[in-house]
Design goal:
The chain has 116 residues and is an alpha/beta fold. Helix content is 35%, strand content 14%. Strands 2-4-3 form a three-stranded mixed beta sheet.
Length: 116
Amino acid sequence: MPRPRKFRKVCCMPQSTLFGPINTPYSESDIIVMSVEEYETIRLIDFEGMMQEECAESMNVARTTVQRIYNDARKKLAEYLVCGKVLRIQGGDFQICGENHGQHCSHCNGRYGRRG
C-alpha cells in the first residue's frame, strides 16, 4: 500500500486561475492543468526570489520534492507559452497556511500578491 501523500503548504490561492489567448475559442484538449502547489513553487522561486531550500521550508516538504514540482510547473508554463494553450490552475495536495489557525505563515505574512 502506498504511503499517503503529504499536504503541501501554500500561502494563498492564486488571484486568477485561467490564462490563455484572448478571444480564441478552445477545447478541453487545449487546456493545461497546473496544480496549486506547482503554482506556489513558481511564485516562491521566480516571483519572490527564494532558493529551492527556502521554498521547501515554506511549503513544508523536502527540497527534492520542490525541485520535482518546480520542474513540472516550468514544463507546463513552457507548453502554455510556446503552443498557445490555455493554462488552468486547480487541484493538488495542499493546505492553505493559517487555514486552521487563522494566521499566515512567517514567509507570506498575509502579503500575497505584493512584493516587498
